[in-house]
């Protein structure tokens, strides 16, 4: 439910990975990714490491395409971040050898604005 439409381009069976991304004791983002099961086994050798670190081992070429940006809301996000929404979100795909490898969605804590500056909010939001 509410998954980016690009996951339809992945070959089933699919798995979904979800993680809270932290810097020390601060929760900075929430991310989820969808993978073909075999591709995940092949490319995520160390599942405790970030996706990027797994994918760049061996320095093979990757291409990233950003598919969407949005403002999202969700009580579970407010609880996880300790802030009231809406929250900025992006979703994108990684490709290798012209083939879609994974779809990733990231939702960012407003705490990042302490370093990046305030971001404007829009009335067009998506509830997750």
Name the features.
128 residues, alpha+beta, 6 strands, 42% strand, globular
Could you explain the architecture of this structure?
By secondary structure, the chain is α+β, with helices and mostly antiparallel strands. It is 19% helix and 42% strand. It contains four helices and six strands, in the order ββααβαββαβ. The longest helix has 7 residues, at 37-43. The mean pLDDT is 85.
Percent strand:
35-45%
What is the succession of H and E elements?
Answer: EEHHEHEEHE
Give the low-confidence spans. Answer: none
Structural class: alpha+beta
Specify Rg, calculated over alpha carbons: 15 Å
**How many helices?**
4
Mean pLDDT: 85
Q: For the terminal residues, how far apart are their CA atoms?
A: 9 Å
What's a quick, concise take on this entry?
By secondary structure, the protein is of the alpha+beta class. Helix content is 19%, strand content 42%.
């Amino acid at each position: 439910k509410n998954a980016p439409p690009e996951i339809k381009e992945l070959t089933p069976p699919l798995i979904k990975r979800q993680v809270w991304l932290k810097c020390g004791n601060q929760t900075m983002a929430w991310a989820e990714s969808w993978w073909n099961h075999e591709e995940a086994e092949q490319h995520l050798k160390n599942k405790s490491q970030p996706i990027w670190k797994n994918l760049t081992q061996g320095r093979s070429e990757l291409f990233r395409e950003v598919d969407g940006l949005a403002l999202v809301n969700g009580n579970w996000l407010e609880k996880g971040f300790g802030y009231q929404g809406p929250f900025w979100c992006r979703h994108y795909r990684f490709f290798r050898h012209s083939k879609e490898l994974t779809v990733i969605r990231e939702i960012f804590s407003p705490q990042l604005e302490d370093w990046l500056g305030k971001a404007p909010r829009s009335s067009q939001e998506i509830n997750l």
